[in-house]
Write a structure and sequence with these properties.
The chain is of the alpha+beta class. The protein has 13 helices and seven strands.
């Protein structure tokens, strides 16, 4: 069966135009600028290829030269779309540089130097394809198995473009069979490239959306810290990593003193400001390798990959900074103090065990005057036993009004 190259190119441009329109539509509906860039590039590229295929060289050398320049601008727009997708600004210079180089080369070179012109044009497209692949590869959060199509699709496109340059001298014959075969192969590859690129685009967009939802589900919206679920997941990974190296970990539990009284006296907006202030104090006074999160109303926690002694020093630093950074409202100054419980354990100690021990120390800090740091003397041997013991202490303390207020 003989495939007509003109028909294949028409099909390729129609497919590219339809996919471009689809990307423009979804980009507008979902307010994703990168999709609009990709869609515009597809539409512009399909128009240039269609006109070049239909017009050919009927109007001399100038029109095909300009149409090829438009196609290079479309290739540059694909690269810029990848830049925008990763939060970078479009490169105006890169958008026009390829087209300018192509027009300059076509103007200065001998019109008979068709091979050199083909080499320059294919080389420019390969450069843009390489830049696009490199840009799409930059998100290291994704696994290699999910990220490889972002590199493979542009690489395949560049390889097919360079094929006549790499192998032309060996395979070209007087009948021109190689050139005819390559034109057919390139037309087929153009369709596959258009569809494959859109697949990669939607794969990346879907991955970005899923990641955003996961981050939103694990972040406390008020303070920007990890919520209880996000904190537990992140701590599990950190504890596992430290366990492989045989290093200890330490947990800090913070409870803002008299927080209910702050809400009652100054209002919930003031209480929210205290929470945001404390979260900033925690982040600014712990290391970048430490994890922190909001695990309750006014209760926060942090996991530090360090010894118990280093954890106590960090806790004292947080306590002192927070105590001296009060908020002043119209009704007067807001008391900003915090009670902290600290517990450390050997490599591989489970988070729940550390939290239980630190919670016991926190309970002691609140009973003995607040605005202080207490250290757990030992880890609970059994979490179930610890919970029953704590529940019994709370029940027996209530009649005598010994329960520490929040």
């Amino acid at each position: 069966m003989v495939l007509d190259s003109l028909t294949l190119y028409i099909v390729a441009t129609m497919v590219a135009a339809l996919l471009g329109a689809m990307l423009l539509f979804f980009g507008r509906e979902q307010n994703i600028p990168a999709l609009r860039w990709w869609g515009a590039a597809y539409v512009l590229g399909s128009v240039s290829v269609a006109l070049w295929t239909l017009v050919g060289e009927r109007f001399g050398e100038v029109v095909p030269l300009l149409l090829s320049a438009v196609g290079l601008i479309a290739s540059a727009m694909v690269w810029n779309a990848a830049r925008v997708f990763h939060g970078k600004s479009p490169s105006v210079a890169g958008l026009a540089l390829g087209a300018v180089a192509w027009i300059a080369g076509g103007t200065l070179l001998d019109p008979a130097a068709h091979v050199l012109r083909l080499t320059i044009g294919a080389g420019l497209v390969v450069i843009y394809a390489t830049l696009t692949a490199a840009q799409l590869w930059q998100e290291r959060r994704a696994s290699l198995q999910r990220r490889w199509p972002a590199l493979a699709v542009p690489a395949l496109h560049g390889f097919v473009l360079m094929l006549p340059i790499l192998l032309g001298n060996m395979l070209r014959d007087s009948s021109g069979a190689f050139a005819a075969t390559w034109v057919t192969v390139f037309a087929i590859e153009l369709v596959l490239y258009a569809v494959g690129t859109v697949f990669v685009i939607f794969m990346l967009v879907n991955e970005r959306v899923v990641s955003a939802h996961k981050r939103a589900a694990s972040i406390d919206p008020l303070t920007g810290l990890l919520n209880r679920r996000g904190f537990a997941d992140a701590c599990a990974r950190l504890i596992e990593r430290e366990a492989r190296e045989g290093r200890p970990v330490t947990v800090l539990i913070f409870d803002i003193d008299h927080f209910k009284a702050i809400n009652d006296r100054f209002g919930h907006p003031a209480g929210d400001e205290v929470l945001k202030l404390f979260s900033a104090v925690v982040v600014n006074n712990l290391r970048i390798t430490d994890l922190s999160g909001r695990i309750g109303g006014e209760e926060f926690a942090a996991l530090l990959p360090c010894s118990l002694g280093e954890g106590v020093v960090a806790a004292e630093r947080v306590r002192e900074v927070f105590a001296t950074s009060g908020i002043v409202c119209d009704e007067g100054p807001v008391d900003t103090t915090v009670s902290i419980g600290v517990a450390g354990g050997p490599a591989g100690t489970e988070l729940e065990v550390l939290l239980a021990a630190a919670d016991t120390a926190l309970y002691k800090a609140k009973r003995t005057g607040r605005n202080r740091v207490e250290t757990a003397t030992e880890l609970p041997l059994s979490l179930d036993h610890f919970r029953r013991q704590k529940a019994g202490l709370s029940a027996s303390a209530q009649p005598a009004q010994l329960v520490a207020p929040t």
